[in-house]
Design brief:
3 strands; 3-stranded antiparallel β-sheet; alpha+beta; 2 helices; Aminopeptidase; single chain
């Protein structure tokens, strides 16, 4: 586990549950605004990488897309 904050605990749990279910990749969409910097930093600490839109998402200046291979 990376840190003891509630966000980190929840993200750690989601990743572990994904592994248990056999997921191969997690994709997240989050905000691009300054308000979302703490969320993006948390995802970076968990080795999420920036990527392009996925699924039905399209490029959007208000969105940032991230993924993590499990």
């Amino acid at each position: 586990m990376i840190s003891a904050g509630i966000g980190a605990l929840l993200l750690d749990h989601l990743i572990e549950e994904g592994r248990n279910r056999g997921y191969k990749v997690f994709f997240f969409e989050t905000g691009a605004m300054e308000f979302f910097i703490p969320a993006r930093r948390l995802y970076e600490k968990f080795a999420f990488e920036y990527c392009g839109p996925f699924g039905d998402y399209r490029e959007d200046p208000n969105s940032v897309f991230m993924k993590k291979r499990l």
